[in-house]
Amino acid sequence: MTDYQRMLLTGAAGALGTQLRKSGTRLGKIVRLSARKPCENLEPHEEDFPADLSDFDAVSKAVEGCDAIIHMGGQGLEAPWNTILNANIVGSYNIYEAARQHGVKRIVYASSVHAIGFYERTETIDGNVPTRPDSLYGVSKTFVENLGRYYFDKFGIETVSLRIGSSFPEPTDRRHLITWLSYRDCRQLVEKSLSAERVGFMVAYGMSNNSRAFWDNRTAASLGYKPEDSADDYADKVFGKTKQGDPNDPAVRFQGGSFAAAGHYEDEKK
Amino acid sequence: MTDYQRMLLTGAAGALGTQLRKSGTRLGKIVRLSARKPCENLEPHEEDFPADLSDFDAVSKAVEGCDAIIHMGGQGLEAPWNTILNANIVGSYNIYEAARQHGVKRIVYASSVHAIGFYERTETIDGNVPTRPDSLYGVSKTFVENLGRYYFDKFGIETVSLRIGSSFPEPTDRRHLITWLSYRDCRQLVEKSLSAERVGFMVAYGMSNNSRAFWDNRTAASLGYKPEDSADDYADKVFGKTKQGDPNDPAVRFQGGSFAAAGHYEDEKK
Amino acid sequence: MTDYQRMLLTGAAGALGTQLRKSGTRLGKIVRLSARKPCENLEPHEEDFPADLSDFDAVSKAVEGCDAIIHMGGQGLEAPWNTILNANIVGSYNIYEAARQHGVKRIVYASSVHAIGFYERTETIDGNVPTRPDSLYGVSKTFVENLGRYYFDKFGIETVSLRIGSSFPEPTDRRHLITWLSYRDCRQLVEKSLSAERVGFMVAYGMSNNSRAFWDNRTAASLGYKPEDSADDYADKVFGKTKQGDPNDPAVRFQGGSFAAAGHYEDEKK
Amino acid sequence: MTDYQRMLLTGAAGALGTQLRKSGTRLGKIVRLSARKPCENLEPHEEDFPADLSDFDAVSKAVEGCDAIIHMGGQGLEAPWNTILNANIVGSYNIYEAARQHGVKRIVYASSVHAIGFYERTETIDGNVPTRPDSLYGVSKTFVENLGRYYFDKFGIETVSLRIGSSFPEPTDRRHLITWLSYRDCRQLVEKSLSAERVGFMVAYGMSNNSRAFWDNRTAASLGYKPEDSADDYADKVFGKTKQGDPNDPAVRFQGGSFAAAGHYEDEKK
Amino acid sequence: MTDYQRMLLTGAAGALGTQLRKSGTRLGKIVRLSARKPCENLEPHEEDFPADLSDFDAVSKAVEGCDAIIHMGGQGLEAPWNTILNANIVGSYNIYEAARQHGVKRIVYASSVHAIGFYERTETIDGNVPTRPDSLYGVSKTFVENLGRYYFDKFGIETVSLRIGSSFPEPTDRRHLITWLSYRDCRQLVEKSLSAERVGFMVAYGMSNNSRAFWDNRTAASLGYKPEDSADDYADKVFGKTKQGDPNDPAVRFQGGSFAAAGHYEDEKK
Amino acid sequence: MTDYQRMLLTGAAGALGTQLRKSGTRLGKIVRLSARKPCENLEPHEEDFPADLSDFDAVSKAVEGCDAIIHMGGQGLEAPWNTILNANIVGSYNIYEAARQHGVKRIVYASSVHAIGFYERTETIDGNVPTRPDSLYGVSKTFVENLGRYYFDKFGIETVSLRIGSSFPEPTDRRHLITWLSYRDCRQLVEKSLSAERVGFMVAYGMSNNSRAFWDNRTAASLGYKPEDSADDYADKVFGKTKQGDPNDPAVRFQGGSFAAAGHYEDEKK
After folding, report:
1. Which residues are CB-contacts of E160 (< 8 A; sequence separation ≥ 6)?
2. Which residues of F participate in catalysis according to the annotation?
3. Fewer Cβ within 10 Å of end Cβ, chain F: N or C?
4. Which intervals hold domain NAD-dependent epimerase/dehydratase (chains A, B, C, D, E, F) (predicted)?
5. Measured between CA atoms, how close is A64 to chain F, in angstroms?
């Protein structure tokens, strides 16, 4: 469905990266996989290109020859500052700057609910509200969104920033009933982000067709995204296995869930 | 689905109260019924507790031991001021103040379209627009909504205020095609209002899946409410039996219908 | 479904006019057809009344005796100024002024995406945003919308202005996947615009149930419009036959498509 | 400046009532004073008409013959529910209903910051935000605003609801630097509310020209209100005499100040 | 202050045109005057160029050689349709199309309060609200605004559309206290509209520093416009000479005043 | 005016830092100066504490014992990524994290117009619009704003983020007429940011009383900020010395001026 000649997929060995490989040539004629370590079980349309995101030269070589990037790589959970700094801040700068130098046209970025995790569950928000990160991880996501905005406004590189909720095999707690993104819908959302003709800099939320949504996801719809799954189908199961939370627990009150409730990472680990 | 130990249902003998009894233990382990007169045909999980809402001591006893309240009681149509005053204003104050004294956590309140009945049909509104009541009855509904807001902001008692449209067995006029709430959907909406983990103070509209809606009902969706019925299924029947109204008739022009068109109650009755 | 005694359909010989004739008596007991030339194959409920829209007297006679008008006539594409002026500006003034003189109650007007064609595809807009026409044709559409607003505010004649996207047998390019309005949905939308009890002056978008929509079409929903078709069903076919456009091409960037990309009409024709 | 023949001033013996008497015939040709007890030192244009607001017949007699009302009477601070109920809820209903029966055209009502006292100081709000009362007193103010809205929408009686901040001789704490309304400005605001030709139902904030305002007071400006005083002139004095508050103290955090911080009235008094 | 070489001033013989001539070379090095008849008392920097706006060739010659236009010409009050059509619709099209052909960079257009005259006085509006014309004259103003929007979006010709309130020597009725624009402020507003470096397509309101304003005039401020006069200075005089209007009179209720209250022009003249 | 015991001023040797030292004890009882090199001419209430912002331990020692911070330090113009990274991203993280560890209550941060530099001049924005940085420098400012938001939402450390326009001795180009912040007003704005009782996380714009403002600066007003200077006083001088810019030049079109117009920093320097 896309006309991309060579797609770079970072984080190719991660959970979502592995799922996205299933999209095959719907991502691009050739899909260049990149992770810290070599990827396995390459398909004919795949090529492997391990790189450390914090190493600009390595990133630049990985980007060279690609016309689009799915940037799933980096640190995917709260972590010490230096990890966040190198993996997500420096790493994503390297991706964008290499993209500029090599003429990449579009980037699909795995942002996160944690970029806006301090909104309350009872607030319906869209992609234009001020960001309210719930963790250093979340702060790094807002950094990359601003970077994407800048590279579009100045250099014309388009970005779809997908604020992914909870992408797991199935919802296992009551908050997931709101934020769940099935793997199948995740693949569709990335594919549609690539094939839409004009995206500019766009923020869309990564969730399935969950009726409990606290997100106004019109931008995703405008990409042609039609989720096929719904957390609603798991509601009875989840309700049966879990207790109703305390509405005053920050993990219940805020969209970011346990991230919003956690203390400072390094204090917590002591 | 809820973890409430004892649910107080006021107005238990009314049309909606009777419907809600069908939800059974989905409301709470024990459902305490309250109306002016004793209720009949008690189920094992039900207990009867008649009380006059305008009598604080009686209300306090009815509330004691409950952890949540479905407040359907009071005067349900336009009436002389003293009736509205005692049944809806004093009565609802009694409910909220007793709830505070006895540690109730959540109240689901039967508010009404008549709290916003002077918006025009051609306006799409959500729960945050300024209220525009169409009757003293409607004014009393806005009073209780403000009371609920206050008790949440100050004392942390959560409220879902359901602005119910037209909850009847089926739609019988063209305005009902917009405002109808089936009994089944009404039950679901109340159940979801109880089981959602965090509601704060929330206003949601009580309507089925009617395509002609003039309400943006995102808050209801965020509770997990997925209406199963639609007034659309009755459109042909209703169109066949009724004539197209005059768009300048206040009963057609305004969301409140005949309430907005009516004169002063006591003048009308002369 | 409507109670209109005699409906005037202008542009009755055009593509949409021809489709609308299929609605038959759902438009009115008698449907008076008007085009520059006589219409053919009249049904028993139809009467033919050819008229040149730019001739006030002819229009006045055509309007006389009608209680509602579906105004599809005029110039339907970009054209030299004098054509736009006479067919759309003078012609529509004649319709509205004749309507006033003869007591017409409601007008359904075929406005166009080209009234707002300079919004970007990535913007979701509703009917209240400032107009941004992409052509003199589009400017003429905004003129008629203002005329309709004026005749309602001052004289109480109701108008539904339908900003029609792309009404063709099926979508043939990627932009159509966003803007397509099937003939069947077009008929329904006009019928619902007539049968809704109160419309005031309303702008609604004419599109089918296309997930890629850049329009917030709540007003259409409030009329009871439930599209039965979707451009999504043609997506694979269209993707297969077309290439991904350049996001910086004005025809891709803007909602108006090729109209926004075109130069000045008469320069282009040289 | 106004053309009113006879103006009823309720609460004429209170602090603001006493100030408003200084406006003299700028309020009306005759100013009828009403308080629970007789007023003193009547001017030639004044007449005294003591009445208990909770007594409809007394209120009706006081209203008879007046064409406008300045409604300053009732309970002016938090109080037990029964006091609030009788003085503010029943009392104001009596005013509005008597106004309807006797053809009064306009009412200027002394509402309060406490109708929206649970907004944070850091939020800028206008008169259209949902009310968030900080006390039963504040709830009663929202009741009267809804009553005023209703009597305008249905019966055409105009109201300006003035949400008065802190009207004292001078600001004495840091919150007053935001909310202060000088007596002189209070008089002007009431006079302008009376002389504006069209007010419909309008909410305006009662504050002087304080730069620290958290209110968008365009509606007051549209009445022609140009405050002559400013709390800014007292800033040095107030800063010198007071300490910087704790930003997490509810009395500092919320617009309602100590009202928002107080517990339940009757609990507090124990 | 501007760098324009030759400024075309249409309507140069009208009331505002005559005032604007006083701005002299602040408008441009040479000011080309255009009216239906020759202008008198030319200054050295002025040249006279009479033209009928409805004659494209005459307009084209008048525009040739100019780099900016102040378009004050046309019909300035309600009139029969044909007058409005030729003077304002055809005439303004001629101005814009000639501007395009001759490379004009910026147009300052005398739009009017009557483009939005059906908003109520109690509504505060800015330049982005949907237009609500109160007359055919007002409809023609909205036509030219859309034309200006189109010529900017497509051809890059900038426009400041000034919705002028009431520009007279002094305010003489109570509505003027809201809408008055002194001649001095009118000149300043036009000068600032010319000298601002970037205006795109902008709508600004033409009023002096009147505290009763129902317009949010930020766009005018952003041009550097600082009104020196205020209708407030005439308030006592106007109040003394006029009576308080009936709030239900359309001339009082709506922003357009008597235009909103008038019936159809030609009916009125019978 | 503030009750702070010890205020840390970073960037104390820079242009704004030097100006802020003139505020003396209005900042705090003791003002601890910090820059890369020792500061000169210490006043009795000042203490010197040189530190490299990118060195956490040095920052931590500088912060220890302070209850508030004015964070003016770091890189103040576009620079190579590594400079931005260390001075602004790592440096500001160090400030915030040290503040958390040492119990600092409030931070006033020197953000910049370049955080939103890609808005057009013709857009009026407030502090809640999505950020649109015009440079890597601007991206770093948005990073710190998100960091401040996070440290407030999670740890309760208040921040006022001042998006400073152009703080120079006087305006020297036409864009400065919009964005100028006099040194005197800069000092006042920082002082008011410190003395306001509750700021939460707040964005305010740093500009003097310039009529050409494209910023809605209500938040600054709510702090009590009343600018004493205005770029307007320099308008004639600036207009006399400069030419009208080309509206299509990005330096004219965008709020960020030359930053928005510049290419990539390192390309430019080649």
Report:
1. E106, E107, E108, E109, E193, E196, E199, E202, E203, E204, E223
2. 137
3. C
4. 7-179
5. 18
Tell me the pLDDT of chain E averaged across its residues.
96
Q: In this complex, do A198 and C122 lie within 8 Å of one another by their Cβ atoms?
A: yes
Tokens of A52: 């450390």
- Band of residue E98 on the pLDDT scale cut at 50, 70, 90: very high
Average pLDDT over residues B208-224: 96
The whole-number pLDDT of residue A64 equals 98
Q: How far apart are CA A13 and CA E82, in angstroms?
A: 73
* Residues 6+ positions from E269 with CB-CB distance below 8 Å: none
Helix (H) or strand (E) segment spanning residue D107: strand D106-112
Average pLDDT over residues E80-97: 98
Q: What is the Cα–Cα distance from E116 to E142, expressed in whole angstroms?
A: 9
Contact criterion met (CB < 8 Å) for F132 and A153? yes
How much of chain E, in percent, has pLDDT values that exceed 70?
A: 99
Q: Is the pLDDT of residue C168 over 80?
A: yes
- Between CA F99 and CA F144 the distance in angstroms is 14
Q: At residue F16, does pLDDT exceed 70?
A: yes
In this prediction, what percent of chain F has a pLDDT beyond 90? 96
Calculate how close chain E gets to D240, using CA atoms only, in Å: 34
Query: Measured between alpha carbons, how far is D77 from B146 in angstroms, rounded to an integer?
Result: 18
8 Å CB contact of B81 and D93: yes
CA distance F125 to A59: 37
pLDDT digits (tens, 9 = 90+) for B66-85: 999 999 999 999 999 999 99
For F22-48, how does the pLDDT look when each residue is reduced to its tens digit (9 = 90+)?
Answer: 999 999 999 999 999 999 999 999 999
Residues of C labelled catalytic = 137
Alpha-carbon distance F196 to nearest alpha carbon in chain E (angstroms): 27
Q: Is the pLDDT of residue F267 over 80?
A: no
Chain E residue with CA closest to D222: the answer is: E212
What are D's interface residues with F at a Cβ cutoff of 8 A?
A: 120-122, 124, 174-175, 177-178, 211-214, 216, 232, 235, 239, 243-245, 247-248, 252-253
Which residues, at least 6 apart from E76, have a Cβ–Cβ distance to it below 8 Å?
A: E11, E14, E137
**Residue for token pair 């995740």:** A186
Cα separation, D94 vs A56, in Å, equals 76
Find the residue in A nearest to C248 (Cα): A198
- Residue C106 pLDDT > 70, yes or no? yes
User: What's the CA gap between B186 and B204, in Å, rounded?
Assistant: 12
Give CA–CA dist D141/D13, Å, rounded.
Answer: 20
Cα–Cα nearest to F212, from F190, F235, F191: F235
Q: Which of A96, A109, A137, A205 is catalytic?
A: A137
CA distances to D200, F15, F76, F169 from F112, in Å: 43, 15, 9, 17
Number of neighbours of residue B169 by Cβ within 10 angstroms: 9
AA identity, residue C249:
D
Contacts 24+ apart (CB under 8 A), D116-119: D116/D163, D116/D255, D116/D256, D117/D254, D117/D255, D117/D256, D117/D257, D117/D259, D117/D260, D118/B149, D118/B150, D118/B153, D118/B154, D118/D254, D118/D255, D118/D256, D118/D260, D119/D214, D119/D254, D119/D255
B175 φ/ψ sector (left φ>0, alpha ψ -120 to 50, else beta):
alpha
Q: Which residues of D are part of the catalytic machinery?
A: 137
Spatial distance between the Cα atoms of F195 and F66, rounded to a whole number of angstroms: 16
Comparing alpha-carbon positions, the chain B residue that sits nearest to A255 is: B198
The CA-based dihedral angle spanning residues A9, A14, A19, A24, taken in that order and rounded to the nearest 10 degrees: 30
pTM: 0.96
C192 and C70 Cβ atoms separated by less than 8 Å? no
- Please tell me the distance from the alpha carbon of residue B215 to that of residue F37, in angstroms, as a whole number: 62
Residues in chain D with pLDDT < 50?
A: none
User: What are the E-state strand segments in C170-240?
Assistant: 201-206
